[in-house]
Amino acid sequence: MHTLKPMSLYHLFSSELTLQEVLNHYKSYLPIAIALLYTPKSCQFATFTEGRLYAATEEISSNQLAQIFEARIFNQDYELRWLNQRQGQGKSVLLWDKEELEATKQNLKKQTSILRTLDQTYVLWGEGTGISPSEGWSRLAAARIGKLDVPINQLSAKQRVYLKTREYLKQDKRYGNVSVAEERLLSLNLEKEA
Prior knowledge:
mainly beta; 2 domains; 8-stranded antiparallel sheet; about 50% strand; globular
């Protein structure tokens, strides 16, 4: 019988912070990262560097930042989530799974026992257009949906982009059922050309 090595998923929580305060607080854990930002009017990608968010053609201003109601900022090691709960203040969580990366020894750290992980890949809607709105960015488009700029360089026409994620599976102690306890965003990847 094969036995699985138990692992942990670590959480670091904070609350009552603005998005800018969260970005400043956690920037050392995500020196270079990708952000997925939601406003009432849009969903867009950005890059995160040195505590600042950059869209395809400009830095995201404080006025634009105030419109964001949810942010997910990620790289291979960490994911930072923020959710606006009341008048621009909200709660955040930093997630990671490698013990050697243990972000901090603060009392806010929570550890969840995980049975195993399952890596997943999701295709983003749209295909490459061959258009680059700025250096390091490419444009996806779909006729009935519109355009989406992604922080990937050299995306060719008709090429697809994938979002890689990791699901964390946990077993219910009472009944033994296994379910997805959490999912963490990891990276954007290009479809390999045929």
